[in-house]
Amino acid sequence: MKVLVLTSEAKERSLIQSVLEKSGHEMISADQLEQARGIIDSNQIRFIIIDEDGLSFKKTDLIQPSDESNIPVIYFLTLSSSDKERSDTDDAMIKPFTQSELRARIKIGQRFISLGDNLSQARDLIDNMAMYDSLTGLMNRNAFYRIAEGELERARRAASPLSVIALDLDNFKSLNEKYGIEAGDEVLRVVAQTVREKSRPYDCIGRWMGDEFIIALPSVIGSDAEKIADRIIKGIRSTQITSGDKILNIGVSAGIASAQRISASTEVDPLIQQARQAMARAKEGGGNQVNVLYV
């Protein structure tokens, strides 16, 4: 990380430089306002340490107002010999300070920047595309494609396996006709929650269409993917779903397309369709089972 240090005291600058270099960061210093502004604009500075005592300018002089919403947040650590309360800075230290104190403050700032970036990225994804299915809370088809393509590319670079599970409720149409759409929607919500709970935290899960769900499993092959599918099916079957005073019995079929090695020609859509074909064969076999296809 590049850290802009604004202080007129040589001893203080030397101490800060020592801490930054030992922590693997790069220090950039400036004495004049225009010089500091130029560094901020050209070097994508995210962390600034500014000494209020020895400079003729302040934090508010450094950052120019902008209408652009994608400008990254800059974290400010203010140094001062006064302990007055400050509302215009992210953190403040009273001089003199120790290396260990400065090191701790820099780590706090890093975590703050990282969290801010993650939140910003998540917000951008949600703003740029309607990612989630409103009924189940799972990714919709477009979002699933986008995330699954990223997983496929990572698997291709790492020469690691990738499996795709397609899930379909065996008796959903008749259940919908018998108990009504509201009961059907509740079934889909509960099933989606169970799928999420029985999958790994980092698996890519989406609602494909109707009562079909899809899961991309990075670094998982054949038998391990089958174990995950079995776990999901058992979880759904053991979950009590009711409509009025009636307990609804839900059956689930699963198909798996499992690729041991991702080649240059491997694409997401064929894997999904192969998983759906395997799922159709599981339904033809009586349902409540898993069919695995190695590709």
Could you please describe the fold and organization of this structure?
- With 295 residues, the protein is an alpha/beta fold.
- It has 2 domains: 127 residues, Rossmann fold (3-Layer(aba) Sandwich); 154 residues, Alpha-Beta Plaits (2-Layer Sandwich).
- 46% of the residues lie in helices and 22% in strands.
- The strands form 3 sheets. The protein has a 5-stranded parallel β-sheet, with helices on both faces. Strands 7-8-6-11-12 form a 5-stranded mixed β-sheet, sandwiched between helices.
- The radius of gyration is 27 Å and the shape is elongated.
- The chain starts with a strand and ends with a strand.
- The mean pLDDT is 87.
Identify the notable features of this structure and list them briefly.
5-stranded parallel β-sheet, 2 domains, 295 residues, alpha/beta, 46% helix, Rossmann fold, 5-stranded mixed β-sheet, 9 helices, Alpha-Beta Plaits
Helix/strand/pairing category: alpha/beta
The strand line-up of the biggest sheet is 2-1-3-4-5
Average pLDDT rating: 87
Order of helices and strands: EHEHEHEEHHEHHEEHEEEHE
Question: Unreliable runs, pLDDT <50, ≥5 residues?
Answer: none
Largest sheet: 5 strands, parallel
Number of strands: 12
Radius of gyration: 27 Å
CATH class of the largest domain: Alpha Beta
End-to-end Cα distance, whole Å, is: 43 Å
The percentage helix is 40-55%
CATH topology of the largest domain: Alpha-Beta Plaits
CATH homologous superfamily identity of the largest domain? Reverse transcriptase/Diguanylate cyclase domain
What's the number of helices? 9
Tell me the fraction of residues in β-strands, as a range. Answer: 15-25%
Shape-level CATH architecture of the largest domain = 2-Layer Sandwich
Provide the number of structural domains: 2
Shape category: elongated
